[in-house]
Amino acid sequence: MTTGVRRRMGVEERRQQLIGVALDLFSHRSPDDVSIDEIAAAAGISRPLVYHYFPGKLSLYEAALRRAAEDLAGRFEEPREGPLGERLLRVMGRFLSFVDEHGPGFSALMRGGPAVSAGGPCARETVSTTTALIDSVRQAAYDQILAHLGVTEPPARLELVVRSWISLAESTALLWLDGRRIPRAELERQLVHDFAALTAVSAAYDEEMAELLRAVLAQEPADGPFAELITRLAALAP
Amino acid sequence: MTTGVRRRMGVEERRQQLIGVALDLFSHRSPDDVSIDEIAAAAGISRPLVYHYFPGKLSLYEAALRRAAEDLAGRFEEPREGPLGERLLRVMGRFLSFVDEHGPGFSALMRGGPAVSAGGPCARETVSTTTALIDSVRQAAYDQILAHLGVTEPPARLELVVRSWISLAESTALLWLDGRRIPRAELERQLVHDFAALTAVSAAYDEEMAELLRAVLAQEPADGPFAELITRLAALAP
To answer: DNA-binding region spans which residues (chains A, B) (predicted)?
Structure first.
């Protein structure tokens, strides 16, 4: 209940508010272009008060990044029900929605991390912090996909396909952000199809992968994204 | 002709020798673990003499990286003769051979660049130098592929497929380096097949891409890598 009186925020509440404000700013412009003054203004507090909660832009950036990483990792979670193609399609929808929301910040981060170091410490520690966060999200995505495939001890070829597809999804999203020249919905479907295609390439030469692919396809409905792809690909064959 | 007398090297010759020695060391261990003392010892000169040619490890690292980037970009060059599948297979062979030769250095570089900054300047400039070099190699690969496809003004979907495949090749190589659990020759073929598969996925929903794919496939021989893939994929279909 609000009393109309502006109440003082607690320390943790204020920190969380600042992280939210910073994440919003870091998402819409390159983090290098966002100043502490702007963050203070957007949060409605003074510059020294920002420094009271965060020693510098770097620590605020890392906190914002941590929140974004948790958000993104959460988007890979999907109930293990129904056909795999539909599940992946929903996950890709949430992934590209995240990329859309955090465009410039996502680009800056994935292109070697931001150089948020003006006047601050060397970027070395930031690079390892951001790399660790990015890796944690990749690992969460990888674990999710394996769980959906029902595999606990992935053979080397499966690990390669899943991890390289995750990397393909990242780079596809990054390339798409540069101009957004392809409808997002098309990209979501394409990434799901890419997963099927990369798996099929591996399965074409390896019986273990072929068995896995057959098990997945056997559960796909005739009107699902995988079945549609196979029909369309067959029409392309010479 | 050698006279048996150890002659003094010229400035440029000595610089090139140091770059070669450094590249060799930076390739086989993480660049952070290579000291100027080691480089001096491997080159058979004193530590102060190394500093006479390069102000520090950072500049020597960048020079080594520049040479490696030129080497790698050169490996994408391939005569525009014969079927595309065979050409791509030769290029992938040279690419993975490069990755094999420069393993730890390649990994360190692609995982956010090395933090070669101990006692030196902040990593900020290094990050932008390494990013620019990596981008120049990616662009060289992209230009080569487009030239082989005979395309001068690529539609957005083709650009996305080619660039995202280049990124897939990078990540596949990086993942492979971690344990080398799959034979290299298999990986070379798989990357060529991945290119065909990603193109086919895009072509399944876009007539312009479908035309391009048909034009490529029409020139493929019955015993080429693309034809073999299609046969094997057809055998997988439910």
So the answer is: 35-54
CATH number at residue A114: 1.10.357.10
Give the separation between CA A47 and CA B87, rounded to whole angstroms.
59
Burial A149-174 (b: 16+ CB within 10 A, else e): beeeebbebbbbbbbbbbbbbbbbbb
Structurally, chain B folds into a number of domains equal to 1
Report CA torsion sign: B147, B149, B150, B154: negative
Encode pLDDT of A49-72 as tens digits.
999 999 989 999 999 999 999 999
Is residue A166 one of the residues assigned to a domain? Answer: yes
Give the end-to-end CA distance of chain B in Å, rounded to a whole number: 69
- What is the count of residue pairs from A and B with beta carbons less than 8 Å apart? 143
CA distance A189 to chain B (A): 10
Query: pLDDT (tens digit, 9 = 90+) per residue, B28-42?
Result: 988 888 999 999 999
- Across the interface, of A160, A167, A202, the residue whose CB is closest to B167 is A167
B220 in a structural domain: yes
Domain assignment present for residue A41? The answer is no
Q: pLDDT per residue over B12-61, tens digit each?
A: 999 999 999 999 999 998 888 899 999 999 999 999 999 999 998 999 99
Instruction: Select the residue of A164, A171, A236 nearest B175 (Cβ to Cβ).
Output: A164
Interface of A with B in 131-150 (CB under 8 A): 131
> Per the domain annotation, does A28 fall within a domain?
no
